[in-house]
Amino acid sequence: MKSSLTSKATIKGKLPAPEIDLIRPFMGLRPIPERVEEVAAPPYDVLDSEEARVMVGDNPWSFLHISKPEIDLPPGMDHTSPEAYAKAAENMNRMIEAGVLKRDETPCYYIYRLTMGEHVQTGLVVGASVSAYDDDRIRRHEFTRPDKEDDRVKQIQAVNSQTGPVLLAHQPQAEAKAIIDSITTSRAPEYDLVASDGIGHMLWVVDDEEHIQPLTEAICSLERLYIADGHHRSAAASRAAAARRQESAEHGKGIYHSFLSVLFPSDQMLILDYNRVVRDLHGLTPEAFIEKVKERFTVEKTEGQAKPEQANKFGMYLAGQWYMLGIKEELPGKENPVARLDVSLLSDRLIEPILGISDPRRDYRIDFVGGMRGLGELEKKVDSGIMKVAFALYPTSMDDLISVADAGEVMPPKSTWFEPKLRDGLVSYMLD
């Protein structure tokens, strides 16, 4: 398939306002195929500044120069400084002027396939409606922090683009799947790369009305979409759009009314466990701590790692020994979707009453370890003495996430760890 990329200078005029306000195609800014492996980068929030600096090395085209621009400033420079946002804009302009990033000539959708071992998920890159987000048709399940929102708003305004996609889920939609399957089986992808972590990333460009219109209709027939990951990015997009509405007389025509998103069917998405480690036993000895735990849980020693194979079971690593914990007390009813979550059960019945941690968002005594690191990482943290006890959880399910969002409730912090991760830089959403 012939690439539809063009340089920024050839883009004229504005896109029409969408007729159906849920998703829309857009003219993506993306790398030329010859440079995609150099450009594609991990999400901005999974690396710290030094890790990003090491990963970039001498690669001038890594998208980390845009998403983590402090790597090009003196060490120690705050990533939220005006200099960092200015450097992000400078680096994006440099990559556009060099022809490494180019913008599509016409509005497109993009099919994005992720492959991690035997797991494959195929979704659609779209401009998701800000008004649908504001009206709760695009539903959220997490609180956001103002400082992190501020950072994303300033980054959007600096580069005049949304560069970090929001991960959205939707209930399976047969018509959309049929269209996507027909495209991916009949065309070669525009990009096909395997990142350094072994994750495969494939991208198809959908630039013909024959497929764009029915895809739009199929997705817009859904009652709602769900934010899986990217609450700060979507909140920032809403704030940036509100600011522009105040500045513009063309309230319904600005393309800032959408935000960069990748939609996946909920039955294809993979949530891994999100485990907990705690620095001390709140003044208890290991023996006294276990006795306290036994008041609320069954406690059984295991020969090896205690990895839960079902909900309401918890692995615990303490003083070189794994235990499997089971809930003793009656579980909350289905009318309490948040209270029924394993992360809530562990917090409400052990971490808060026994370990004295009531605010895991701010309490330095607790930390979180994503399931990709394995239970060996929990052992390492406890055996080193940095932490005293670790808990392995069964993953939160997509049904749980949807139930919480539909109830208008909020999950506890660090409830979900989605894998595989999207790559930054494959498609960005320019705002003019």
Description:
This protein has 432 residues and is an alpha+beta fold. It has two domains: 5-270 and 420-430, no CATH class; 274-394, 2-Layer Sandwich (Conserved hypothetical protein from pyrococcus furiosus pfu- 392566-001, domain 2), CATH 3.30.1760. Helix content is 30%, strand content 25%. It has 13 helices and 22 strands. It has helices at residues 36-39, 49-56, 64-67, 82-97, 130-134, 146-159, 174-186, 209-220, 231-247, 286-294, 342-351, 375-383, 398-406, and strands spanning 5-6, 23-24, 28-31, 101-104, 109-116, 119-129, 138-139, 161-162, 166-170, 191-194, 200-206, 225-229, 258-265, 270-272, 274-278, 297-301, 313-318, 321-327, 366-370, 389-393, 417-419, 428-430. Strands 2, 5, 6, 7, 9, 10, 11, 12 and 13 form a nine-stranded mixed β-sheet that branches. Strands 16-18-17-20-15-19 form a six-stranded antiparallel β-sheet, with helices on both faces. A hairpin with a 2-residue loop joins strand 17 (313-318) and strand 18 (321-327). Helix 4 runs parallel beside helix 6 (146-159) and helix 7 (174-186) runs antiparallel to helix 8 (209-220). The chain is globular. It starts with a strand and ends with a strand.
List the helices and strands and how they pair.
Layout: E1 5-6, E2 23-24, E3 28-31, H1 36-39, H2 49-56, H3 64-67, H4 82-97, E4 101-104, E5 109-116, E6 119-129, H5 130-134, E7 138-139, H6 146-159, E8 161-162, E9 166-170, H7 174-186, E10 191-194, E11 200-206, H8 209-220, E12 225-229, H9 231-247, E13 258-265, E14 270-272, E15 274-278, H10 286-294, E16 297-301, E17 313-318, E18 321-327, H11 342-351, E19 366-370, H12 375-383, E20 389-393, H13 398-406, E21 417-419, E22 428-430
Parallel strand pairs: 7-12, 9-13
Antiparallel strand pairs: 1-4, 2-6, 3-4, 3-22, 5-6, 5-11, 6-13, 8-22, 9-12, 10-11, 14-21, 15-19, 15-20, 16-18, 17-18, 17-20
Helix pairs in contact: 4-6, 6-9, 7-8
